[in-house]
Amino acid sequence: MQRREVIKNIGLSLGFVAATPTLMSILQSCTSDPKVTWTPEFFTQEEGSVLSKMVDVILPKTDDLPGAAELNVPQFIDKYIKEVYSPEDQKLAKDGMRAFTAKLGVEDPKDLPGVKDKDVEKIIADALSLGEDQRRDLDRKLRAYKDSDDGAAPENQDALVFGFVKDVRGKTIYGFKISEYIGEEVLAYDPIPGKQQGCISLEEATGGKLWSL
Fold it and tell me: Which has the least CB within 10 A, 77, 89, 91, 190?
């Protein structure tokens, strides 16, 4: 399947992409030069390198489209968590990142930038390939963990990883879809909407593309 078809199908699974002014301002502030070292605002520098690998595993670069990291999606996620998440959800994100990096088997945080993409991909694939009963059980543990004041007990590690991967995947797809390049070059884009045409198929209206914004 071509990447453009993948993006279209992702859109169909997530519904209409609504980009509020707040979210657009967050994304527009993430326009750092890719040649310049990115300094996260919420995660540590080393954790930021892991986040960058995660988003490029989820939406990698192809021949016809840039990868999520190239579109500053890691910066968007980091800034979104810092500016939008509640303190409770921020703690969950921090603990989720720590649980994820623990799965990588890296003892010294300074070694995180050197982790291999294939190791990051394996953890993501394992988390997203769980059965429905397993997902429900981990969601239950995650809710209980969030409501408690306990530390990250060993039995919570898989739940934290699952929740973190699921959250990063959702934010990656969202940030990717509302980026300027995807909005104008891949999705159907009309900066000055014209007349409304009801009762026609998406194929007839836009050639099968979802509307941007």
Answer: 190
Instruction: Quickly tell me which residue has 């986040």 as its tokens.
Output: 51
Which of 176, 201, 171, 207 has the alpha carbon at shortest distance from 189? 207
Cβ partners under 8 Å of residue 152, min gap 6: 95, 98, 99, 145, 160
Question: Does the pLDDT of residue 162 top 90, yes or no?
Answer: yes
The pTM score is 0.72
Burial of 79 (0-12, 13-18, 19+ CB in 10 A): buried
Q: With b meaning 16 or more CB within 10 Å and e meaning fewer, what string describes 40-63?
A: bebbeebbbbbbbbbbbbbbbeee
Query: Which pLDDT belongs to residue 71?
Result: 85
Which range has the worst mean pLDDT, 40-44, 52-56, 66-70, 169-173?
66-70
Q: In whole angstroms, what is the distance from residue 183 CA to residue 161 CA?
A: 30
Burial class (CB in 10 A: 0-12, 13-18, 19+), 202: middle
* Cβ–Cβ under 8 Å, residues 138 and 159: yes
Dihedrals phi, psi of 100, to nearest 5 degrees: -65, -45
Supply the pLDDT for residue 54.
95
Instruction: Report the SS3 class of residue 141.
Output: helix
Residue 50: name the closest of 107, 93, 108, 104 by CA.
104
- What CA–CA distance (Å, rounded) separates 176 from 195? 28
